[in-house]
């Protein structure tokens, strides 16, 4: 199983934050001292039982962990093959996995005495999670959000404001997630003393990809003991599957299984309208190539001149033009397989989950489910698949309605969505 650099996949990254040739720390000199002090504090916290005791307490009483590991019996029967489990991270406070990571980073910020938290957000999910935890701890919260996204995601902008956060629309570039992240990095270097940058996915300069992964790994760790409890001592999943935007929920599920060669690992990217050269998708691994963005080397959507391209997906949470560097490494080393699923396939899976299990999923995990639906029928009934149901679908019902041609424009909620 081992890669030449590490004797274990679980030991990545190296001292420089590299996963093979990916990752690292491509930042300006002004940012370097900030990153180094963050890294030092994280290394101290990681080995401090008091830090994890506080995390555990909040995970239990604030987030609602452990999230259930649920045998999707009707879905499994309908597909007629593998035994399918869903890891129910959509039941977390704020409705997705993002809060696992935000709690970790905010506790770290508190240890460092930082009082001003900044974050970037695309669809608004990470912004809402950050605003939530800042409210809980009485911290000032500033969220950078592309001006285009501010318009598209009005309900999440309002949620952040209710929670006391200031939302700053970003007009540079094309006014989307990539530009919001650039502005957040700029803010950080100008407000060195009191500010902590809370990144929303397993990307950015070292130590963010490893740190975010460590916080999200609670997902896979719980799956390990929960499956053993339900299927018998020592039983591991045969396949684990998760959707990938930047890759944080996926690496959280995958990481505890990287050194178990019997566990097949599959990441599902957003194939949008199909992976070809028009880039109407967000499949950085299947349709991109390596480059440097936001402080790390990884696979990116880019044109021939190396210009970063905007991704497209029906699911706003998946349209980051890059992918966390650890996934690029797992892809090139062959330890994990990466596939893509189109909008249309994800929509079908969304409906199947509603109908067979009474679970309205977010469109992001619907991509993972769509791949489960492709492979499960060909697998034997003793093959266990665990997929990460990383978010709930409340935020997506209007998008789905529109695609199904279901007219909600004359309802009050429908109107506000259209605006
Ligand atoms: C943000 C989000 C994602 C994408 O982010 P990752 O870092 O790839 O996990 C996926 N699903 C949901 C529900 C999200 O909110």
What does this structure look like?
The chain has helices at residues 32-46, 49-63, 73-79, 98-111, 125-137, 147-152, 154-162, 177-190, 208-216, 218-231, 248-254, 284-287, 325-333, 343-357, 363-375, 397-404, 412-418; strands at residues 18-19, 22-23, 69-71, 83-87, 116-121, 140-146, 166-170, 195-197, 239-243, 264-272, 289-293, 296-300, 337-342, 384-388. The protein is α/β, with parallel strands linked by helices. The chain has two domains: 20-60 and 98-211, Rossmann fold (3-Layer(aba) Sandwich), CATH 3.40.50.1100; 66-95 and 217-403, Rossmann fold (3-Layer(aba) Sandwich), CATH 3.40.50.1100. A six-stranded mixed beta sheet has the order 3-4-14-9-10-13, sandwiched between helices. It has a four-stranded parallel beta sheet with strand order 7-6-5-8, sandwiched between helices. The longest helix is centred in the N-terminal third of the chain and has 15 residues, at 32-46. The chain is globular and about 60 Å long. The termini are far apart. The model has no long low-confidence stretch (mean pLDDT 93). The structure holds pyridoxal-5'-phosphate.
């Amino acid at each position: 199983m081992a890669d030449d650099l590490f004797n274990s996949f679980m030991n990545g990254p190296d001292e420089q934050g590299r996963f093979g040739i990916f990752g690292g720390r491509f930042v300006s000199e002004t940012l370097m001292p900030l990153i180094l002090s963050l890294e030092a504090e994280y290394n101290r916290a990681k080995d401090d039982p008091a830090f994890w005791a506080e995390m555990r307490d909040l995970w239990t009483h604030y987030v609602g962990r452990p999230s259930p590991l649920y045998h999707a019996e009707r879905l499994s029967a309908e597909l007629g093959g593998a035994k399918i489990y869903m890891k129910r991270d959509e039941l977390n406070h704020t409705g997705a996995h993002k809060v696992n990571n935000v709690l970790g980073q905010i506790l770290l910020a508190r240890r460092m005495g930082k009082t001003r938290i900044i974050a970037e957000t695309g669809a608004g999910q990470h912004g809402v999670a950050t605003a939530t935890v800042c409210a809980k701890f009485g911290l000032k919260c500033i969220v950078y959000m592309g001006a285009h996204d501010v318009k598209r995601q009005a309900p999440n902008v309002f949620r952040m404001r209710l929670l006391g956060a200031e939302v700053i629309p970003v007009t540079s570039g094309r006014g989307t997630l990539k530009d919001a992240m650039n502005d957040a990095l700029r803010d950080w270097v100008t407000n060195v003393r009191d500010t902590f940058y809370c990144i929303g996915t397993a990307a950015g300069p070292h130590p963010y990809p490893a740190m975010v992964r460590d916080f999200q790994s609670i997902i896979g760790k719980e799956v390990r003991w929960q499956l053993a409890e339900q299927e018998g001592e020592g039983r591991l999943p045969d396949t684990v599957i998760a959707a990938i935007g930047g890759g944080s929920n996926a690496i959280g599920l995958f990481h505890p299984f990287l050194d178990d060669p019997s566990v097949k690992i599959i990441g599902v990217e957003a194939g949008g309208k199909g992976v070809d050269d028009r880039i109407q998708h967000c499949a950085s691994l299947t349709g991109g190539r390596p480059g440097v963005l936001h402080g790390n080397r990884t696979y990116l959507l880019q044109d021939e001149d190396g210009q970063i391209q905007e991704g497209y997906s029906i699911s706003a949470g998946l349209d980051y033009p890059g992918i966390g560097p650890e996934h690029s490494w797992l892809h090139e080393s062959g330890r994990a397989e990466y596939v893509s699923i189109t909008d249309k396939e994800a929509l079908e899976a969304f409906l199947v989950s509603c109908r067979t299990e009474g679970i309205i999923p977010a469109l992001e995990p619907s991509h993972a489910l769509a791949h489960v639906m492709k492979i499960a029928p060909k697998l034997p009934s003793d093959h266990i698949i665990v997929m990460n149901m990383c978010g709930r679908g409340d935020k997506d019902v209007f998008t789905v309605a529109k695609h199904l041609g279901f007219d909600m424009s004359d309802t009050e909620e429908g109107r506000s969505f259209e605006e």
